[in-house]
Amino acid sequence: NAGVTQTPKFQVLKTGQSMTLQCAQDMNHEYMSWYRQDPGMGLRLIHYSVGAGITDQGEVPNGYNVSRSTTEDFPLRLLSAAPSQTSVYFCASSYSIWQGANTGELFFGEGSRLTVL
Amino acid sequence: KNEVEQSPQNLTAQEGEFITINCSYSVGISALHWLQQHPGGGIVSLFMLSSGKKKHGRLIATINIQEKHSSLHITASHPRDSAVYICAGGGGATNKLIFGTGTLLAVQP
């Protein structure tokens, strides 16, 4: 049971390049989400998914695309990287956010540090 | 304006002290997560609670729904407790969490 696996851990891009951050979980979680963490700010939700084939925008979706073709995978695509997208990105999953019967615990990946020059 | 406010932003304690970190939130948030992030490290879930109190080891989390306030307590603090503690609130049908900016805790030996 690997939990949430997030790759790559580090990436440097030039402005205008595209890339995909990978996120996979092996816990059969319905809910998966992507956040960015910037100094002095709380984690901000980029996109989330409540199941395969279902995605929705979060607080800061511009410049990012997601898809959820399987329960396990939730990749985040940067379409045309900009310096403003320099950040640390976290993927997280949960069986469900709000639970009656169980903990609703959030599981985070180790983070991906992205620098856009 | 962030709908989840944490205090204090920074906290320094001596080993063994009792520590309290507070989280206040706005209408529409009905439950809270408490998370821990060590420097340069990943994020770990400590608690999720929508009422009352939960305890795990030296950590205790409480929530008061009427006052829209939650606290995280650490008893007999230790240098290994040094980390950023984050509260995140959400609820209803949005499936979206709103995060506080975190409390940086340093426990000195």
Description:
The complex is a heterodimer of chains A (117) and B (109). Chain A is mostly beta strands. Chain A has no helices and eleven strands. Chain A has strands at 4-7, 10-13, 19-25, 31-37, 44-51, 54-57, 64-66, 76-78, 87-94, 107-108, 112-116. In chain A, strands 2, 4, 5, 6, 9, 10 and 11 form a seven-stranded mixed β-sheet that branches. A four-stranded antiparallel β-sheet of chain A has the order 1-3-8-7, with no helix packed on it. In chain A, a hairpin with a 6-residue loop joins strand 4 and strand 5 (44-51). The radius of gyration of chain A is 14 Å and the shape is globular. Chain A starts with a strand and ends with a strand. Chain B has 109 residues and is mainly beta. Chain B has strands at 4-7, 10-14, 19-25, 31-37, 43-49, 52-56, 59-64, 69-74, 83-90, 98-99, 103-108. In chain B, the strands form two sheets. In chain B, strands 2, 4, 5, 9, 10 and 11 form a six-stranded mixed β-sheet that branches. A five-stranded antiparallel β-sheet of chain B has the order 1-3-8-7-6, with no helix packed on it. In chain B, strand 6 (52-56) and strand 7 form a beta hairpin. Chain B is globular, with a radius of gyration of 13 Å. The A-B interface holds A 31, 33, 35, 40-45, 48, 50, 56, 58-59, 90, 92, 97-99, 103-111 and B 2, 4, 30-31, 33, 35, 41-45, 48, 50, 86, 88, 90-91, 95-102.
Note poorly predicted spans of chain A: 99-103
Number of helical elements of chain B: 0
Largest sheet of chain B, described in full? 6 strands, mixed
The helix content of chain A, as a percent range, equals under 10%
Question: Whole-number average pLDDT of chain A?
Answer: 90
Give the overall form of chain B. globular
Instruction: Output the radius of gyration of chain B.
Output: 13 Å
* Helix content range of chain B: under 10%
